[in-house]
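BUG: 3D viewer hangs when loading the predicted structure for this chain

Environment: internal workstation, default settings.
Expected: structure renders.
Actual: progress bar stalls at 90%.

Input used:
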Amino acid sequence: MKKTFLIFSLVSLLSSFGIVVFAYTGADENRANFLATEHIIMDHSDAPVQYRFDDKIIRQEMVSIALKIK
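Structure tokens produced before the viewer hung:
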């Protein structure tokens, strides 16, 4: 019970500061850069945040990517 309270308190404290946690790694960025060099997705290697790893992909984007894969 004490551990649960500590974890809950820590999460509450960190969320109150508005700390952003990204759910992607450098490997994901490398994969996105590879897809960009193959002209499957737009190249954002100069600003990887613009790859929008945390956003959901819409159906139209998925179809566009699927049609570009050779």
